[in-house]
């Protein structure tokens, strides 16, 4: 491999703020923030909005949608329109 062309691969602490879960994963992501992990070491820190710990696809917890279906909403929206014979 050529020297000095590859990004720095190191352990990075990712924090899913929605589920308040921490992941320590090897990454090349750049950040200036650091955070102390439960093992006592300080790692580069990146906050996430969604991860596998909070995403409905992975957790199986679907968000409740409105009780009105798509067809009922369409009929309600266009109820005033009639067809001419």
Radius of gyration equals 24 Å
Gap between N and C termini: 76 Å
Percentage of residues in helical conformation: 10-25%
Strand content: 25-35%
Q: Give the integer mean of the pLDDT values.
A: 84
Q: Enumerate the strands of the largest sheet in spatial order, edge to edge or round the barrel.
A: 2-1-4-3
Q: Could you give the count of β-strands?
A: 4
**What's the total helix number?**
2
- Structural shape: elongated
Main sheet makeup = 4 strands, mixed
- The helix-strand sequence is EEEEHH
Low-confidence stretches: none
Structure class: alpha+beta
Describe the structure.
This protein is of the alpha+beta class and 85 residues long. It has a domain at 10-62. The protein is 14% helix and 28% strand. The protein is built from two helices and four strands. The chain has helices at residues 56-59, 70-77; strands at residues 10-16, 21-27, 34-36, 42-48. Strands 2-1-4-3 form a four-stranded mixed β-sheet, with no helix packed on it. A hairpin with a 5-residue loop joins strand 3 and strand 4 (42-48).
């Amino acid at each position: 491999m050529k020297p000095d062309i590859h990004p720095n691969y190191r352990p990075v602490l990712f924090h899913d703020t929605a589920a308040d879960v921490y992941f320590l994963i090897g990454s090349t992501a750049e950040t200036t923030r650091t955070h102390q992990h439960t093992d006592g070491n300080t790692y580069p820190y990146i906050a996430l909005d969604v991860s596998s710990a909070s995403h409905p696809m992975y957790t199986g917890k679907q968000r409740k949608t409105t009780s009105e279906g798509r067809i009922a909403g369409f009929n309600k929206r266009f109820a005033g329109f009639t067809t001419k014979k």
